[in-house]
Amino acid sequence: MEEQQQQHTFNDLREVESFIEQNEAATMTKFVVYGTHASFFDNLWQPSSHPRVFWEWSRGEGTPTLPFTGTPFMFIGTKEMGCHLGRDISESKKRRDRLHQDNACTRKRRKRKSVQDCKKIGCPAILTVTRVAAFPQFKIVDNKDRTKRAASARLKQALQRDPVTWENLYIIKTPSPSAHVGHAVSGELIWSRKTFVRKECVDLLKHLTDKVLLVEEQRGLEHIKKRLVDLLEDVQPMVPNEARSPLMDVSEGKRLKEKSVTGLLAHSVKCGSHVVHLQSTCQIQTTNPA
Asked: Where would I find the beta strands (DSSP E) of 142-211?
C-alpha cells in the first residue's frame, strides 16, 4: 500500500525550520527551495476583505488538506521545497556560464566529456509549507453553505472596519519515503541509481523502436542499423561473460543467414516445365527439359 503524505501544523516559522531539519536528519535527505510566495515571509502582512475566505480545502497537488473545523481561514503564501537530488534549479544559469566560458576561450583545447552533468537524478519528492491566517472568533458549528456564507460576510465586514484578531498557522506537508526515487531514505535503498538509469535506457529503447517502425526510407534504416551495430559493440564489453551469448547471437545469426543464402544460390529449383539454376553469382539460367 502506498504511504500517504503527512501534515504538521505550527504557529511559528522557527518551529517549521526546526521540524524540517529534524525530518532531514531522520530520513537522511535534504530539501532545497524551489519557490516561495512573496507573502510567505512578510511579517507585516495583515488580512483584508479582498482575499477569499475558505472553510475547508482538499484540492491542489502539494497543498495541505484542511477539513472543516468551523474556523474560517485565508491563504497567505506557500513555500515549495524539493529533494536536493530532484530537478536542477540552476540549470539555466549553468548553461549561461558555459556559453560565457566558451566565448571567452581564446585557444582551442580538448574538453573532457562529463558522464554526468550534475548529481541530480530527478527525485520527485516535494515538501510544501503553507501559511494560513485563521479567524477563531468567527467559528461556526453547522457545516452548511448558508451558514458559511453569512459568517464569511460578517468576517469581511469586520475586516473593513477594525483590525481583526487572527492566528498565524504554518502547515507542512512532508513526502512519504516512497516518494523519493534513486537514493537512500532512512538507510534503506528505495531505488538505486543504477536501476534508475537502466529504466531510462529501456524507456529510450522503446521510444526508439516506435520511431524506427515509422521510418520508410531504406537509406535511413541502413543508417540506423549501422548505429545500432556500433552501439552493440560498445555495450558488449560491459556485459558479464555468462550473459554475452544474446549479443553474440546477433553476429552469429548474420553469418548463419549469409550461409543459408549462399547455399540457396547453389541449388536449382524446378518451376513447372523449367528448371531454374541459381548460381552463386545470382545469375538465373533456365533449361527446358527434353
From this structure: 167-174, 184-185, 188-189
